């Protein structure tokens, strides 16, 4: 089946630890995105990548890092520098970086910092 | 500052009612507006609107965009309990080809039997 997968579904982390969230897509989409969702605030863009080996900061990139070594993979690392990491993280992808394409979302990872 | 505002933030109706959800926006270089439905996890795509005045329709759901007044509405007729969800509005904007989205806060719809 084609789609976007994220793992793990739930993640618990102690303060001071880095943690990496996985996002994989087999849709052959060029562009991939990471969002954070907090109650009452909608989705906010963390990082996005329009092509392999290139990525750009979104609106709330501080405390996060990404890599795009393969077209189908866009992992997000939540570092200890992120002050309030507990949130629901959504990965998305779109077909083409050159047009305003619809973004399709993965099932999300809920991160809780203990 | 670019922003997308949805109203109401929450809504409770009974099955069979018709609801209208609102989304207003102020962004530079508007390109398209999207509606998503989010039940428990991933938002699922409903509509993409690019042109003013052209209604998009899918079953009991419909949506229209007004680029002059900078808003969109999402209508759901004959609501069912399965329509209960958070409805997200997002705007694609920007001068570069980024496809960046700005999301509204979402409208939480609860449909009671």
Describe the structure.
The complex is a heterodimer of chains A (114) and B (113). Chain A is mostly beta strands and 114 residues long. Chain A is 0% helix and 49% strand. Chain A is built from no helices and eleven strands. Chain A has strands at residues 4-7, 10-13, 19-25, 31-37, 43-51, 54-57, 64-66, 76-78, 87-94, 104-105, 109-113. In chain A, strands 2, 4, 5, 6, 9, 10 and 11 form a seven-stranded mixed beta sheet that branches. In chain A, strands 1-3-8-7 form a four-stranded antiparallel beta sheet, with no helix packed on it. In chain A, a hairpin with a 2-residue loop joins strand 5 and strand 6. Chain A is globular, with a radius of gyration of 13 Å. The mean pLDDT of chain A is 90. Chain B is built from no helices and eleven strands. The mean pLDDT of chain B is 91. The interface between A and B is medium-sized, with 28 and 26 residues.
């Amino acid at each position: 089946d084609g789609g976007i997968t994220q793992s793990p579904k739930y993640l618990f982390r102690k303060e001071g630890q880095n943690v990496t969230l996985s996002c994989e897509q087999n849709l052959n989409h060029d562009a991939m995105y990471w969002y954070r969702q907090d109650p009452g605030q909608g989705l906010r863009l963390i990082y996005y990548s329009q092509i392999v080996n290139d990525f750009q900061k979104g609106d709330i990139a501080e405390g996060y890092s990404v890599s795009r070594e393969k077209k189908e993979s866009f992992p997000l690392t939540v570092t200890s520098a992120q002050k309030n990491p507990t949130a629901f993280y959504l990965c998305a992808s779109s077909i083409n970086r050159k047009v305003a394409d619809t973004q399709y979302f993965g099932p999300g990872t809920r991160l809780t910092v203990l | 500052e670019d922003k997308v505002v949805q109203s109401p933030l929450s809504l409770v109706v009974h099955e069979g009612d018709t609801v209208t959800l609102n989304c207003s926006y102020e962004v530079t270089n508007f390109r398209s507006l999207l509606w998503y439905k989010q039940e428990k996890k991933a938002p699922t795509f409903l509509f993409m609107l690019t042109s003013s005045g052209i209604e998009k329709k899918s079953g009991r759901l419909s949506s229209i965009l007004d680029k002059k007044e900078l808003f969109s509405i999402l209508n759901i007729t004959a609501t069912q309990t399965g329509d209960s969800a958070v409805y997200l509005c997002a705007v694609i904007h920007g001068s570069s080809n980024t496809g960046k989205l700005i999301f509204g806060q979402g409208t939480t719809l609860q449909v009671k039997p």
